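During the second year of the project, the team shifted from modelling isolated chains to modelling whole assemblies. The rationale, set out in the original proposal, was that interfaces cannot be judged from single-chain predictions alone. As a representative example for this report, we include one of the complexes processed in the last quarter. Its constituent sequences, exactly as entered into the pipeline, are reproduced here:
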Amino acid sequence: MTKGKKFLAYAFLTVVSVISVFPLYWMMVAATNKSVDVSRGTLIFGTALFDNVKKLFASQNVATALGNSFKYSIIMTFISLLVCSIAGYGFEVFHDKAKDRVMSVILLAMMVPFAATMIPLYRMFSSARLLNSTLGFILPTISTPFLIMMFRQSARSFPSDIMEAARLDGLSEFQIFYRMFLPTMRSTYAAAMTITFMSAWNSYLWPKVIMSDANSITMPMLVANLTEGYVTDYGILMLAVLVCTIPTVIVFFLLQRSFAEGITGAVK
Amino acid sequence: MKRRIASILLAGAMVASLTACGNSGGAGQNAGDGAKANELTVWCWDPAFNIYAMEEAAKVYQKDHPDFKLNVVETPWADVQTKLTTAATSKNLDTLPDILLMQDNAFQKNVISYPDAFKDLTGSGVDFSKFPKAKTAYSVVEGKNYGVPFDNGAAIAAYRTDVLKEAGFTDADFTDITWSKYQAMGKEILAKTGKPLLSCTAGESDLIMIMLQSAGGSLFDKDGNPSMVGNDKLKKVIETYVSLVKSGVLVEVNDWDQYVGTMTNSTVAGTINGCWIMASIQTAEDQSGNWAITNIPKLEGVGDATNYSNNGGSSWAVTAGSKNPELAADFLSKTFAGSVPFYETILPKSGALATYLPAADSKVYGEPQEFFGGKPVYAQITEFASKVPSNNTGVYYYEARDAVATAITHVVSGADIDSEIKTAEDTVKFAMGK
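Output from the structure prediction step:
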């Protein structure tokens, strides 16, 4: 690469990174400013952070929302990983024609938008008396075609010779999964965990539809509450968005390396 | 083996915690479940405004009914609509709360689409004659009242008196005027101060609808059929709008935040909107004393033109699935539709301007407002509200508004008005399946 080309490349990359980082920077700036200054377009950190924090906590039940969001997301991630990894493993390791067909049906389900199934689901959950419950919150999204497919793909790279050997040595099928598959697929699990945690944390429509209790509010619902009203306080709103973003950012950074490996399907 | 036991124990603990969570939901299955005879659940949005008003209303009602309990669940409007649609189409009406707040623009649509979901409040003890007719009209379907009016959407024109002064005008010059006079003075102000008189969001039909309603015009006829082609009022409105844009007196911005920004940044000399815009104006504390409120300009050359209109506003609906519909109606009739002291309490603290006519004469409404040049703007606006002509909304109001907004965008960039109106009407007819 010549010097000129290199310069161009760097210039381009700089512009792109500024564009992608700017909204985050602006969010933080806005969280420290008064609403009127935000709407006047300020780009420097202000002094209203403490005021915004006070007002946010006074007007919204942030502790409950954070607690609920963590509760739902952690339970959902845990169960979802368990169910989907077993399913993906099963589809690949014990596959036959019939199971492949079932898998295609599951993949087809990926194409159905949630809005189309929402009302029937609501009817089902209402008759099962699962409205306003954690189970109702997590049940529709515990098993997602995407995760099953992801685990199925990574199970494909799991050598079958080892399994044969393990069977000869007397390990049960469950033990093979638990003792051999699970530890080797750590990066896939990490990637799946990041994805599931984020989507559970950010999920809005379904929880909003089935949760009608003020005590079951989650962080995205809290943010939505702040945007409604004749006057939107942008400072408080951005502070709430910041609080809502931090946990997913932490999860992502903690699992970042494994996430990249898991997505690209690397097995050591 | 140890591991196996551990994993079984873990799985067991997980299942146990899950069932525990399932029960700890607290509120029970349905919003109405566990509701005692003296308890009501309400869905509404905006803690500073609607929720605050509801809680104050509960306090008023508790004076005579000490056992009364009110449970407000903060729910943004878009979600009220989603949950209402889900519950009504899946026939689970008992999952709705006793009372919900509804945007006036969507009121008829919801009552017509889900006739079983709402309680007819005619004859329930609520005195609807105490509200302006144009306001109650939003929640009347086939002659029956379904809503108790709450917040005011009366249109106001707000002006920066300091900017007007710079150009040699006062807010009195802008009272009871026509749009052509408005435009002429606006041009002069633009030339002298460089500031347009008005800003609005491009691709939104708010201002169009304000103008149309001020002349008693609607996008639908009495039977709910679209009436855009051949609607002289609509054509006049679009012509007026385009002429304002072309003269530079009206500047179009890209979104709501920019629109608020034009006022807080002092880049415009005024605005026209529902009176709730005052709350946004007042966030710029340094402009206190420099704003004045008056009525809006009127259209020329069309019959029934007035200087009054409406944009937005909402009303309380009682659901048919409510376990205590009588209590809900009684509660609303003794507070939102029957207590001047209640309105006197909520106004100063939240600026929650209502449409209850008897409140307009109260002392609190007549108090001078420093921010708006020391004028009693609240009494003034309540009076405006009483003069607003009615608007037919119907089921497809939002679709029609969007179609008109698209037409406006095209006409501003040079398209022919008549053919654009025709396209808009066809779009709405298509949405209606006609």
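Chain A has one domain: 59-264. The domain at 59-264 of chain A is CATH 1.10.3720.10 (MetI-like fold).
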